[in-house]
Amino acid sequence: MKEIFYLTDPISDEDVNKLKVGNIVSFSGNVYCGRDAVLPKIVDMYYEGSLEEKDIDLLGSIIFHTAVSSAGIGATSSNKLEIESSIAPLSEAGVKIHLGKGMLSQATIEALQKNNSIFAIIPPVTALLQSKIEATEVIAFPEEGMEAFHRLQINDLRMIIAVAHGESIYGENK
Question: What are the residue ranges spanned by the domains of the chain?
């Protein structure tokens, strides 16, 4: 059985430096959730310096590429233009783990490496993931419904590291 790395927030550079492609991580703590509708808006807020107005602290955080609904949560494709283009600036803003699915471009892998951030994937098992949520809160863009920017309190969310330190689980990148 593979070693499991147990992390809580905030995630440090030292935590990231210990992880390699293929490692399994168990995370407990706050997870931000957003996808194509809100992540570009969060990037804009970062550039404007207005994240604090919504009590968003990205330093040492995880962003899960998902919507939040009563049916559960499940990873969306992280290589959608609106999502993948948010990864570099959000890593620069302090996000340490981007959680989703799909192969990322070489430019995004390099941006992750530059900012000492990583990308992890999670199997699409919405019912299991729903059982890991202890609390949920809409913190920005409520008009987007289930695609609003959420903060979840999570206990024991498992993921697999897919991109770390310039390497990818997918081998060749697009």
Answer: 4-168
| Side chain identity, residue 58 | L
C-alpha to C-alpha distance for 98 and 77, rounded to whole angstroms: 12
CA 152, 125, 118, 46 torsion-angle sign: negative
What is the full per-residue pLDDT of the chain (174 aa) written as tens digits? Answer: 578 999 999 999 999 999 999 999 999 999 999 999 999 999 999 999 999 999 999 999 999 999 887 777 888 899 999 999 999 999 999 999 999 998 899 999 999 999 999 999 876 566 567 778 889 999 999 999 889 999 999 888 888 899 999 999 887 654
Q: Are 158 and 125 in contact (CB under 8 A)?
A: no
Q: Which CATH number fits domain 4-168: 3.40.50.300, 3.40.980.10, 3.20.130.10, 3.40.50.80?
A: 3.20.130.10
Burial environment of residue 119 by CB neighbours within 10 A (0 to 12, 13 to 18, 19 or more) = buried
Burial of 96 (0-12, 13-18, 19+ CB in 10 A): buried
Write down the pTM of the prediction.
0.82
Whose tokens are 């602290």? That residue is 57
Distance separating alpha carbons of residues 23 and 155, to the nearest angstrom: 18
